[in-house]
Specification:
It is a single chain. The chain is α/β, with parallel strands linked by helices. The protein has one domain: NAD(P)-binding Rossmann-like Domain (Rossmann fold), CATH 3.40.50. The protein has twelve helices and 14 strands. The strands form four sheets. It has a seven-stranded parallel β-sheet with strand order 3-2-1-4-5-8-12, sandwiched between helices. Helix 6 runs parallel beside helix 7. The longest helix has 25 residues. The chain is globular. 49% of the residues are buried. Bound molecules: nicotinamide-adenine-dinucleotide and sulfoquinovose-uridine-C1,5'-diphosphate.
Length: 386
């Protein structure tokens, strides 16, 4: 099986590339190093040291005997380069991670908003238009986000479905029963780009019969997979700064470096979570179970559990003795929400969920402790406000 991994130098993409290569797939990474450029822009590197990609790939070949290919292509700005690569490689599936993925980064300034929309929407649309032209049978697996749904149904006990919901539409005296995509309710420009992606996928599945899986993933935590721990040069990213660091990994590293745990607002926000080890398994399951030509977009929710932010802070504090700091929330989001989300599709395909456990939390803390001297305390604060 030949797989192209767009965004394969990033956090989820790197772990996925190694996992698929380990399973025997011929993997080619496509990346433009935008994430490494953002590190320079923000003055905040991954807590774990990330060596240049060619060294990462050499290390993987040395420990596994497998080769992973690489093409440096800007998927959003170089459609010809992307088209040439797809024609040459003839991939069975393309996994698309190549987007700007941080909500705070997307809200830093008008320029950051424009960059995030231009980059993410163009990347997805370039890919779709190329697939329609030269590779309509290729399965596209895209990483969406649970944030497309908003988080919960205005306090009502309602389970967020996997993409589609049956609706009764009323207009005047007319009533129309229809299964529709769950109404989008993004909370940042970044999350909005994923709702725009979803509409692009809807159109190309309908018009060009493209085979598309959209995985609405929760917040990924952890950093290590079976493959990344085989050599220090294979270590995965550990983003902790106020833009790219996500909440649970931030709390764990804050505890490790002696920084108070930064809870936004009351910490009553409930969010979906998944460990990086399950992310890579979900992508494998999605690749192995493509929709048929002519099917609607296959939407699956990629999460294993939900947690309230202040419960996570209290748990980490109990485990480590770290102090909790309740900060004014820099984001426009509900102070408190319940979240009930369906996730049966991936489980039915064989996902055996990894649940948050003290052992796994300690594993992340140990990695953060190992690289604690690389922490830049000045980059801890979330400075983007909206
Ligand atoms: P990341 O920033 O670590 O990786 C993204 C990669 O894509 C980077 O290597 C970047 O250089 C590359 N990239 C960006 N724009 C590109 C372009 N125009 N051309 C080529 N390469 C480009 O992000 P991540 O955490 O690995 O997330 C990957 C995907 O998964 C994103 O689409 C994100 O929205 C989604 N996701 C992530 C999480 C999470 O918690 N990390 C949760 C849900 C969904
Ligand atoms: N939060 C804190 N303290 C912190 C950081 C965050 O309380 O130090 C809070 C935020 O205010 C928010 C929640 O924790 O209420 C989650 O924030 P986050 O930064 O961990 O996650 P988010 O911005 O939603 O984005 C991340 C990924 C994104 C992915 C999304 C999945 O960066 O790529 O799409 O998680 S989801 O949250 O399900 O939409």
């Amino acid at each position: 099986m030949r797989i192209m991994v767009l965004g394969g130098d990033g956090f989820c993409g790197w772990a996925t590339s190694l996992h698929l290569s380990d399973q025997g797939a011929e993997v080619t990474i496509v990346d433009n190093f935008a994430r490494r450029d953002a590190e320079t822009e923000l003055g905040a590197e991954s807590l774990t040291p990330i060596v240049p990609l060619d060294e990462r790939l050499d290390a993987w070949h040395a420990v596994s005997g497998h080769s992973i290919g690489f093409r440096q292509i800007d998927v959003a700005r170089d459609p010809q380069g992307l088209r040439d690569a797809i024609v040459e490689i003839e991939p069975t599936a393309i996994v698309h991670f190549a987007e700007q993925r941080a909500a705070p980064y997307s809200m830093r300034s008008p320029d950051h908003k424009r960059y995030t929309v231009d980059n993410n929407v163009s990347a997805s649309h370039n890919l779709l238009s190329i697939l329609a032209e030269v590779a309509p049978a290729t399965h596209l697996v895209h990483l969406g986000t649970m944030g497309v749904y908003g988080y919960g149904a205005n306090g009502k006990p309602f389970q967020i479905p996997e993409g589609y919901v049956s609706a009764t539409l009323r207009s005047g005296n007319h009533v129309f029963e229809k299964e529709i995509m769950y109404p989008p309710d993004p909370g940042s420009v970044y999350h909005m780009t994923k709702t725009l992606d979803a509409l692009l996928f809807y159109f190309y599945a309908k018009n060009d019969s493209l085979r598309i899986t959209d995985l609405h993933q929760g917040i990924v935590w952890g950093t290590t997979t079976d493959q990344t721990e085989r050599d220090e040069r294979l270590v995965n990213r550990f983003d902790y700064d106020g833009d790219y660091g996500t909440v649970l990994n931030r709390f764990l590293m804050q505890a490790a470096v002696g920084h108070p745990l930064t809870v936004h607002g009351t910490g009553g926000q409930t969010r979906a979570f998944i460990h990086i080890r399950d992310t890579v398994r979900c992508i494998e399951l999605a690749i192995d179970n493509p929709p048929a030509t002519g099917d609607r977009v296959n939407i699956m929710n990629q999460l294993t559990e939900t947690h309230r932010v202040r419960d996570l802070a209290e748990l980490v504090s109990r485990l480590t003795g770290a102090e909790i700091q309740y900060l004014d929330n820099p984001r426009k989001e509900k102070a408190e929400n319940n979240l009930l989300a369906a996730n049966a599709n991936l489980r039915n395909l064989g996902l055996d969920p990894t649940h948050l456990s003290e052992g796994l939390l300690h594993e992340v803390i140990a990695i953060a402790e190992k690289y604690a001297d690389r922490c830049q305390f000045s980059r801890m604060a979330s400075t983007a406000k909206w």
